[in-house]
Amino acid sequence: MSSVTAPAQSGVVGKFSNYLDERTSISGAVKEFGRKVFPDHWSFLLGEVALYSFVIILLSGSFLTFFFQASMTPVHYEGSYVPLKGIEMSAAMASTLDISFDIRGGLLMRQVHHWAALLFVASIGLHMLRVFFTGAFRKPRELNWSIGFVLFVLAMAEGFTGYSLPDDLLSGNGLRIIDGMVLGLPVVGTWITFLLFGGEFPGNDIVGRLYSLHILLLPAFVLIFIVLHLMFVIIHKHTQYPGPGKTEENVVGFPVLPVYAAKAGGFFFLVFGVVALIAATVTINPIWNYGPYDPSPVSAGTQPDWYIGFADGALRLMPPHLETYWFGYTWSWNIIIPVLVLVLFLAAAFAYPFVEAWVTGDKREHHLLDRPRNAPVRTAIGAAGVTFYAVLWAAASSDIIATHFKVTMEGVINTLQILLIIGPIIAFMVTKRIALALQKKDREILLHGFETGRIVRLPGGEFIEVHQQLDAYDRWQLVSYNDNAPIMLRPNPKGKITGGMRMRASLSRFFFEDRIAPVTENEYKLALEHSHH
Amino acid sequence: MAKNENGTADIVPAGSAEVTGTGVVSPDAFTNPGLPPHRPRITDLDPKAAKRAERVVYWLFYISIAASVFAVYAYMFFPIEPENIHSVRMNTLYLGLGIAFSLLAIGIAAVHWGKAVMADKEAIDYRHPVRGTEETRARAVEIFRESDEESGFSRRTLIRNGLIGALIAFPLPAIALFRGLAPMDQDPNNLLKHTMWKKGTRLTRDPQGTPIKASELTIGSAFQVIPEGLVDLPEHEMLDEKAKAAVLLVRLKKEDLNWTSAERESWSYDGIVAYSKICTHVGCPVALYEQQTHHLLCPCHQSQFDIANECAVIFGPAARPLPQLPITVDAEGYLVATSDFTEPVGPSFWERSK
To answer: Is residue A365 domain-shared with residue A486, that is, in the same domain?
Structure first.
């Protein structure tokens, strides 16, 4: 054993630390994690925003539970908001109005909760895009992508259940749409809604049931998956962008204590502060304008919260008359197809890392991120996916687009229907070309230097612009990327070529056929020699 | 060693890791130049700047304290007064601003502290492969093998299969329990196929519940209609019934209405027609009536129905026309239904055509 002894345990802090360590062995954790290094980049903050908004949601949500009554028992509203006085509504709606108009800071907390929820889903989405476009999902992080995907779905479920709780006209219509969608599902639809709503729509139970999900079951799952997600971040250590001095075997950055604690801890307060500032000044979900739920009225321009928009848009883009009667049963294709489209879209997002891993056959660990341009086909697939989502999302506002831009509703819908099909294809092709062009530009700069803007007249009368070579660090930035080439179709040891091998080879051609290889040392020397002539 | 696609240069392993699949590493690749030289910050070079940064940080913490105190002050001195909307706005605004600035000041101070004042010392951690060492993995396999042997999990197949069977069976009661989510004595199929309307039910105004005389409808006018007696139901039953029975009543010129059969025409009365207001797509109220074109528009997903043509779908995702409520007038001239809807109203469901 070494003869290292801990510093004398004097003073209050020392005594307390000693007390704690002798009961928890916490010093081991401090030794392990206290100086753990995290790399710096603004895009790494997106995931932090998601984490912090969840904390804000928990804090503000706990406050709201002390006042909210998750009950559909009818009451006559007797609170402070005059226009609704004496109106019959559910206890849920009345208590939400009380939170807004009779409890000091209640409206503020409601708005903090709602804005933070919108931010939560948004930051998860952006974080996923960052992870996707930089290839951070590659080995060993495929499973953490799956965990993050589950969190994304859970966040949307949390959002929708929370949105439905006040039992106002807008959220009631949202539930009506869910009811109608589930009813349209083959075989099980009718019974699922019957059980979900405790009888017929709207029934008397749904708010209470959604409340259990919203404040107990779903948050518990979110918490479990966040813990898993962060555990893997620690196990894998954070990815970093490529650059001089950065390798697959190291992490360059700042230690948790003290710099990261200050910056990440401070960032929590920044996120919270911004949410509080928005909540203090910008109204969100003014249920008092909508009134209590009633199945007959609805206001024009109804919109779900933003993250449900893509699902609503999928419903809106279906052409008319899609329903058939087969074997005596009703097949509601106007429901089944959009649901399938959404499920397949989400499944594709879930499965992408595994598909790419299979195509590349790459068994190495990847801790250095890709610049999006250096993975042109992946970046193009991402752009196609974003376009697909964006068209669905825009479709959820088709009526608002029509009224704001004074165009016909039919025109908007028909345009979006076409865009949904060809938009992703165009986005794919354009993005891939841009990525390849950027790679070519990098190559050009590497081999011939960058333009200095200095024009020199040579003795012969010729004008040239002086190009300057990059220094070694900037050069490394442009050459250090992952290069892939299509695999060649070769018979396996049994001398056979299987269907799977064919598919893999053709997919690898799809991914890597158009390829700009990184500049090598020799190429660079040749170019230098050439430019000296 | 494999050849790359050109068959010219060998593909070599990168470091110790073997390149597999599509990965290509050129033997002629550049080498990593290592970390660039450290660039000191202005606060490292200029003691004045360092002092200034320090001052900014502690002053921001003091500002945060002041803002928190202000928030408590705002809580007390901007109370919510009953029936005063303005007071709600002031309470939300000042309390919110106090809280926001106290949080933002802490955030800015801490980040500034970390970036400008704390030691600017980049650190390097080294990664290890995520997989366990060969020794650890061998021991893990060994543990499983030993415990299999000691328990006889693979050997004693009767025990093992019994366990698997029991584990599959034990959650079944939980599934049964969930049947209780909905009333045991009701069948959704039956409920979805019937509404409150029956022969002789008067059409009444929504929400007052007063009956409507045919003579009250001028051409082009529209009424939101509920069945007579709906308003007397208990609140929760009322909404369930209303969600199926809501009707839109419209009077058009008789010659503008096109009918597929004389029977359908008999469901109307002197140009007055009653259609279910519940969209056949996913059940939103089809609330927007366009008088000029006789079109009904659902604001949720923009399905459009043509009243002049038995509410046929002319645009949007809906598949079926809105069901028509057969109506006539009673002896006193009030509009009444002659039966329930002849088909289920609202969104389609699996057993709808049964």
So the answer is: no
Of B35, B277, B313, the CB nearest to A244: B35
pLDDT tens-digit readout, B78-97? 999 988 999 999 999 999 99
Q: Name the nearest CA neighbour of B283 among A178, A311, A198.
A: A178
Contacts of B313 in chain A (CB under 8 A): 320-321
Percent of chain B with pLDDT over 70: 94
Q: How buried is A18 (Cβ within 10 angstroms: 0-12 exposed, 13-18 middle, 19+ buried)?
A: middle
Size of interface A-B (CB pairs under 8 A): 404
Mutate to test the interface with B, among A252, A296, A299, A325 (most CBs of B within 10 A): A296
Instruction: Pinpoint the alpha helices (H) of A71-141.
Output: 91-101, 106-133
Mutate to test the interface with A, among B32, B233, B249 (most CBs of A within 10 A): B32
Distance from CA of A122 to the nearest CA of B (A): 21
pLDDT confidence of residue A9: 65
What number is the ipTM of this complex?
0.93
Asked if B123 and A517 come within 8 Å (Cβ–Cβ), the reply is: no
B130/A236 CB distance under 8 A: yes
In this prediction, residue B10 carries a pLDDT of 38
User: Is B107 close to A273, i.e. CB distance below 8 A?
Assistant: yes
Cβ-defined contact of A316 to B283 (cutoff 8 Å): no
In chain B the domains, ranked by start, together with CATH numbers, are 42-117 (no CATH), 135-166 (no CATH), 194-337 (2.102.10.10)
Mean pLDDT in chain B? 92
- Secondary structure class of B335 (helix, strand, coil): strand
Query: B233-260: per-residue pLDDT in tens?
Result: 987 789 999 999 999 999 999 999 999 9
Of A317, A339, A370, the residue at which a domain comes to its end is A370
Q: Are residues A46 and A131 in the same domain?
A: yes
Alpha carbon distance A525, A533 (integer Å): 13
Residue A126 φ/ψ region, left for φ over 0, alpha for ψ in the -120 to 50 degree band, beta for the rest: alpha
Distance CA A91, CA A77 (A): 9
Q: How far is CA A112 from the centre of its chain?
A: 21
Chain A residues within an 8 Å CB radius of B88: 80, 100-101, 107
A249 and B127: CB-CB below 8 Å? yes
Mark whether A189 and A65 lie in a shared domain.
Answer: yes
pLDDT tens digits, one per residue of A381-412: 999 999 999 999 999 999 999 999 999 999 99
Q: Using CB atoms, pick whichever of B93, B122, B186 lies closest to residue A254.
A: B122
Per-residue model confidence as pLDDT tens digits over B140-151: 999 999 999 999
* Nearest C-alpha neighbor of A252 from the set B36, B206, B31, B267: B36
pLDDT at B5 over 50: no
Enclosing domain of residue A148: 42-291+299-370
Q: What would the two tokens of residue A314 be?
A: 């999928």
Q: Chain A residue with minimal CA distance to B352?
A: A330
Q: Mind telling me how many Å the CA of B121 is from chain A's nearest CA?
A: 7
pTM for the whole thing?
0.94
